[in-house]
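Weekly modeling sync, notes
Attendees: S.R. (lead), two postdocs, one rotation student

Agenda item 3: backlog of single-chain predictions. S.R. asked that every request posted to the team notebook include the full sequence so nobody has to chase files. The rotation student volunteered to paste the first one in as an example of the format we agreed on. Action items at the bottom.

Example entry:
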Amino acid sequence: MVEVKKVLMNPAVFRKARRRVIVAAALMNVSGGILIQKRPAGRENAGLWEFPGGKTEAGETSEAALCREISEELGVNLAQEALLYVGATDFISNANHFQLKLFTCDTWQGAVRALDQQDLRWVRPDQLALINLTPADVALIPALLARL
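Predicted structure, as returned to the notebook:
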């Protein structure tokens, strides 16, 4: 397990912010591709790519939140026991403190489809450094590649 700690702003402000947890999955297909999705227009980091996922809800474990988010966004069902923790990174967005936790998963039920009309792309692991990913996702690439 690799813990990635990266502060993307002033540490004094960072300590005062309440942290919210965001979870994401590096879904891996049988060809070795990793799924990424493009952030929609009108949202922070619009046009950048990211690993799919979303925010945890009160009382929800990271794994349960990720299974729920992936089902809502991509229409596939993940089993919590199939999720492998990769690492985490902290960042600030709009004066809010977030922690992004990344998991890998190579098994799911259903066909991946863009339920939120987001652009999806399968990329090889060696292509990740060439993709215009969000800063938080970029911070987790070394931990992900070390896990593969």
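Discussion: group reviewed the output briefly. The radius of gyration is 15 Å.
Action items: rotation student to repeat for the remaining queue; S.R. to check formatting next week.
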